[in-house]
Amino acid sequence: MAKARHYKRLEKNAVSSLIGFVQRGFGLLGKGILKFFHACDSKLTIMVVPHSKGKVVNFQTNAFALVFGILLIIGIVASFIYFKRQDSGIRDELARATKENRELLASFDELRDENNNVLQSAKRFKSSLSQTLSLLGLNQFNQSKNVAKNSNSSSDLNSLFDTQETVSGTTKEVADMKQLSSYLESAIQPIEQIGKMLESQETLFTDIPNIWPIKGGIGHISQQFGQNRHPITGVWYIHKGLDISTYRQGDGIMATANGQVVTVAYDSGFGNYVIIKHKHGMYTRYCHMATIKVKKGQFVSQRDVIGTIGNTGLSTGPHLHYEIHIGSDVVDPAKYVNIKLTNQK
User: Fold this and answer.
1) Are the C-beta atoms of 207 and 279 separated by less than 8 Å?
2) Given this model, what pLDDT does residue 39 score?
3) How far is CA 23 from CA 14, 26, 37, 285, in A?
4) CA distance 158 to 168
5) What structural domains and CATH numbers belong to the chain?
6) What angle do CA 285, 291, 292 make, to 5 degrees?
7) Rounded to the nearest 5°, which phi and psi values hold at 225?
8) Alpha-carbon dihedral of residues 243, 247, 252, 258, nearest 10 degrees?
9) Which PANTHER family does UniProt cross-reference here (predicted)?
10) Three-class SS of the chain
């Protein structure tokens, strides 16, 4: 019991001490606040004395108003400096944006010029495609496609070139490019048709003599088809083929089309020569050969090597005498070889 009373007494003393400390603290705080307000409320007299004998100006204020005024002036000056710096940054951003805008305008002008070039190329493409389709007999297909496209979305290239109105909210250039893209999409199918047609005709191309007969595309025409002066006798005569020279012996001679070897022989004029029979009543003759690598009755394919260039028979030097016959007629081989005839003599 004595210990309990002792603890209670200590507890009361501690609580009393704490309450007393808090009361003294609040008392000191209140006094400090009162002193601060008294100090701020203290009167001050400010006098302005001119150097001349003018009137002395004085006015009264208190410390609070003076401190508030000083802080207000400092705030105004700080705000001015801050916004001045912000204004300088905005001006720099504006100058940079103006420069970028000029560059964008220049790029836009260049893009517009390129757009015009693309449209001009598209016009030429349209004309060429129409002519090609017409030659291949696909013009009806092309027209039907155009009619369908015009009835649905006006995406034909004609609407691109004739249109004057653009979609609201888009530039003319963007509208033109969209229509051009739509037309090119519609042009894919006829181009694919052309490819399929050419693929189906590949066999026909290999059955007709249409390539340069010397392997590697080398050589030049030393004497053309038609009226010529004979290089040995000097007499004018009709030259019935093309003379192709490489200035040497041994270069490969190729079959210019699929066919069957019908003649392998020697002649005093043609020397060693080969005749190949092709479809559609066509024959080719290869003369003055040094070696022959095929036999009579053998079937050959276009580009197969059938022999080499030589100087056999009535010849002034190594060369190939090449002829094309259609039935009983001899035709100019230059119309059939698939090269540009240059360096002709």
Assistant:
1) yes
2) 66
3) 14, 5, 21, 133
4) 21
5) 212-335 (2.70.70.10)
6) 50
7) -75, 145
8) -20
9) M23 FAMILY METALLOPEPTIDASE (PTHR21666:SF285), PEPTIDASE-RELATED (PTHR21666)
10) CHHHHHHHHHHHHHHHHHHHHHHHHHHHHHHHHHHHHHHHCCEEEEEECCCCCCCCEEEEEEHHHHHHHHHHHHHHHHHHHHHHHHHHHHHHHHHHHHHHHHHHHHHHHHHHHHHHHHHHHHHHHHHHHHHHHHHCCCHHHHHHHHHHHHHHCCCCHHHHHHCCCCCCCCCHHHHHHHHHHHHHHHHHHHHHHHHHHHHHCHHHHHHCCCCCCEHHHCCEEEECCEEEECCCCCCEEEECCEEEECCCCCCEEECCCCEEEEEEEEECCCEEEEEEECCCCEEEEEEEEEEECCCCCCEECCCCEEEEEECCCCCCCCEEEEEEEECCEEECHHHCCCCCCCCCC
Amino acid, single-letter form, for residue 91: R
